[in-house]
Amino acid sequence: MTRSPWLGPGLTRPNHRESDSDDSGLAAVEFALVVPLIVVLLFAVITAGTAAAGKLSLQAAARDGARAEAVDPNSGCTTAIDRLTGTSATVGDIHCTTTASCPGERNNIEISANRIVSIPILGDRTIALTASASYECLAG
To answer: Residue 56: which domain range?
Structure first.
């Protein structure tokens, strides 16, 4: 033990010698253990964000399709798919169905898409995205 002028009179601090502790590779091992987890977490967050963007695109297309179907029966799916044409890489394989019993009743348009995503270490996964909108037929 050596006296330290900064600790006050009579207080001592332990001696630290280089030979007592050899932590030279510890930081590298910790880094090697933590980095893969951070990379997987980063890709999971990016994938979740693009899936949420795809879901929003599907929902907007379903609303547009419902508006078109309300005015002109049998045009809803065409309108919805046309809206998604530019975003097909984000959304994936698109399927559209409508239930129409015009005039005057509530009907639905449903759009679904299966999107394949790749996450390092976890591999390829298929995400099912769905959206729907309801409408009332105005044309008869």
So the answer is: 35-136
13: confidence class by pLDDT, cuts 50, 70, 90? low
- Distances in Å between the alpha carbon of 109 and those of 75, 85, 97? 11, 17, 6
How many of the other CB atoms lie within 10 Å of CB of 9?
6
CB of 116 closer than 8 Å to CB of 31: no
CATH number of the CATH domain containing 123: 3.30.1300
d(CA 85, CA 5): 75
Q: What is the pLDDT of residues 39-64, one digit of tens each?
A: 888 888 888 888 888 889 899 999 99
**Residue 81 confidence (pLDDT) above 70:** yes
Phi, psi dihedral angles at 27 (to 5 degrees): -65, -40
Report how far residue 54's alpha carbon sits from residue 120's, in angstroms, rounded to the nearest whole number: 21
Number of domains the chain is built from: 1
